[in-house]
Specification:
The protein has 182 residues and is an all-alpha fold. It has one domain. It is 62% helix and 0% strand. It has nine helices and no strands.
Length: 182
């Protein structure tokens, strides 16, 4: 039986585009320290290409760890978090819940780069939520709440504590609110 964190392939492709957008916003924090390391940007670009249907699921599952490994080539905490956001975005082909990981790490990177960390994190989360399409909201709403299913990134791992958990919970809470009238 597939994990409830996986999502359908169609939903993974949809949320991969949003995850790529989230990760790309903080990519300059990584690239400022590791301008010659293209792994994080490649991960974001591959997530976007997967979302557009240009790359296959099996190949992207095999390559999903490459972007995240870029975090080992930098020292600044914001740069590390930005690389991890790219790694999570590239993991969406494998499991849709990684989209929330991309958003959480991007918000962490933005916070670490801000003078007022909480304000920086909140601003990033606000951007992320307001840039979800209705389809992305619907797909992400199918994911189990953080900590309720152990079969993926929303289990007891890194996303379940600290600022990452706070961010994931905030995003998941937003998914249950109705969209504002246009």
């Amino acid at each position: 039986m597939a994990s409830p964190q996986a999502l359908s392939e169609a939903d993974r492709r949809l949320v991969a585009l949003w995850a790529a957008d989230c990760a790309e916003r903080v990519l300059p924090l990584f690239e400022a320290e590791a301008s010659g390391d293209g792994r994080a940007r490649d991960g974001v670009e591959r997530a976007r290409a997967f979302g557009r249907g240009e790359l296959g699921t099996a190949e992207e599952i095999r390559r999903r760890f490459v972007a995240g490994r870029a975090a080992h080539s930098v020292k600044a905490p914001a740069a590390v978090a930005a690389a991890r956001a790219a790694g999570q975005a590239s993991g969406v082909a494998h499991m849709g819940a990684h989209a929330l990981g991309a958003a959480a790490y991007a918000a962490k990177a933005a916070a670490l780069a801000a003078t007022d960390q909480e304000a920086g994190r909140r601003a990033e989360v606000l951007w992320q939520v307001t840039h979800m399409t209705a389809g992305v909201r619907t797909a992400l709403a199918h994911l189990p709440p953080l900590g309720e299913d152990s079969s993926g990134p929303l289990g007891a791992g890194l996303l379940a504590s600290g600022v990452l958990a706070t961010t994931v919970r905030e995003i998941q809470a937003e998914l249950s609110r109705p969209l504002p009238a246009a």
